[in-house]
Amino acid sequence: MTPEPRRLVVDPIRCDAHGLCAELLPELIQLDDWGYPMISADPVPPALEAHARRAVKACPTLALLRAGNPVPVEVRPTNGQRR
Amino acid sequence: MSPDPQRLPRLLATVGRSDLAAHVGHWGPRPSGDHLLTELARSGLTGRGGAGFPAAVKWEAARRSRATVVVANGTEGEPASNKDKTLLIHAPHLVLDGASLAAEAIGATEAVICVDQSASTARRSVHRAISERIHYGQDRVALRVEATPPGYITGEESALVAWLSGGRALPTFGRRPDQSGVDGRPTLVNNVETLANAALIARFGADWFAAVGTAESPGTALITVSGDVSHPAVYEVPFGTRIADIITRAGPTSRPQAALIGGYAGTWFGPADCATAPLEASARSGVPIGCGSILVVGEASCGLKATAEIANWMAGESAGQCGPCANGLPAIAAGVSRLLDAASPQRAAVQTDRWLAMVEGRGACKHPDGTVRMVRSGLCLFADEVDRHRRHGDCRRPAPPLPLPRYDGAVV
């Protein structure tokens, strides 16, 4: 198994500004003027690893991702179509 | 026997004679694309769609992932650009040669030429050219035309691929066309001008191609000049040409005070930069030409109004998929418009700057970044203008003539 890449990214198309990530990980995620997350480009420090994992799991639209991980295709509408 | 490499125009050499007989008569028959990749790498050809990425690197990636389809991107949703349509009208066979050669070089079996559905003359030209080629058996791969929906974003690589796969023409996130493109198949997407150049490299070689231009950006560029000029048109110039010389050729109607280089997602430059800076494909040296357009603002026009109008138009062209772009661009556009008013508060400028920083880099595609670049460079270049508007109100000068097509069906 390859080690988990440690930076967080957001799929801006999936993100619907629920804002849970910023609540669970305010150290690395702030919300912009419209409620969308602005995510630190720094790697997740080991001390925040558990919180980061929780934030990824908590995202209702699965928009919060590990950098370097493929976009979860099975939950993405194909062909660029929106639901 | 190669034509004189110094002789221009190159890509537009056959203007007015776009049929296959004239094409083959001028350029000679199409060679095979089987060994083109090496020569393409040696030529240093850069992509002409805006990013200026080395074409050979893109082709090699597509070949390695066993791409089966080539997309020739001639959608040209950029209002300040007319070079792709011009090329498709006057040299369709050069583009088709390039598409066909690219397919052979990377092992693809089909090539799709994408043209805006409202660009009927360009579309007819390509249709006619393909019919001729089928009749004379020119190609080993299947060529077809797709009439793409209007919109600035349609030509964005991932949006075009999504549309060709049966979806809507909207950008996607996190997928590369060379890995997962049309219908999930690995795909090579190239601008039509890039492919036309590849067709010349295949015939006459890398050295011939690079005989004009600069070391970093070899060859010629098709440049659309518009705005405050008496001869708005597409000009073919070698890379390295100074911006001011191109503007002079187009006949400025009043002394140029600024030029927006590289389309509505481009950068504003002042006269000093235009006078010294050479045209380049990337920003490493000189002025990056982006999609290949120069919008001239003369002294009789207001550059701040142009910035505001273009920002507003770009906000309207957001696909609306990503929150920061869908919310941020209208906010930025409104912010710039406020600067046109007398006594606009200082905080309007500060707020706009804040939004520019907030939006940058946060879209699935580069649409927000391009808008940020245009607005930021405009507010910097037209800082005196902002000040004048604040102190004296309307400058009573109009924006330069701007093509601002309405993509809700009608093309203005």
Descriptive report:
The complex is a heterodimer of chains A (83) and B (412). Chain A has 2 helices and 4 strands; from the N terminus they run E-H-E-E-H-E. By secondary structure, chain A is α+β, with helices and mostly antiparallel strands. In chain A, a hairpin with a 5-residue loop joins strand 2 (29-31) and strand 3 (37-39). Chain A is globular and about 30 Å long. Chain A starts with 7 loop residues before the first strand and ends in a 17-residue tail after the last strand. The relative contact order of chain A is 0.27. Chain B has 412 residues and is of the alpha/beta class. In chain B, helix 12 runs parallel beside helix 14 (367-381). The model of chain B is unreliable at 408-412 (pLDDT under 50).
Q: Which pair of protein chains has the largest interface, and what are the residue counts?
A: A-B, 21 and 30 residues
Q: How are the strands of the largest sheet of chain B arranged? A: 6-5-11-7-8
- DSSP helix fraction of chain A: 10-25%
Label the overall shape of chain A: globular
Elements of chain A, N to C (H/E): EHEEHE
Radius of gyration of chain B: 21 Å
Helix count of chain B? 15
Structural class of chain B: alpha/beta
Structural class of chain A: alpha+beta
The level of helicity of chain B is 40-55%
Secondary structure layout plus pairing:
The complex is a heterodimer of chains A (83) and B (412).
Chain A: E1 8-10, H1 20-24, E2 29-31, E3 37-39, H2 49-58, E4 64-66
Antiparallel strand pairs in A: 1-4, 2-3
Chain B: H1 20-27, H2 36-43, H3 55-64, E1 69-74, H4 83-90, H5 92-106, E2 110-116, H6 120-136, E3 142-148, H7 157-164, E4 187-191, H8 192-209, E5 220-227, E6 233-238, H9 243-249, E7 256-261, E8 267-269, H10 271-276, E9 279-280, E10 287-288, E11 293-298, H11 303-316, H12 323-338, H13 346-359, H14 367-381, H15 383-392
Parallel strand pairs in B: 1-2, 1-4, 2-3, 5-11, 9-10
Antiparallel strand pairs in B: 5-6, 7-8, 7-11
Helix pairs in contact in B: 2-3, 2-8, 4-6, 5-8, 11-12, 11-14, 12-13, 12-14, 13-14
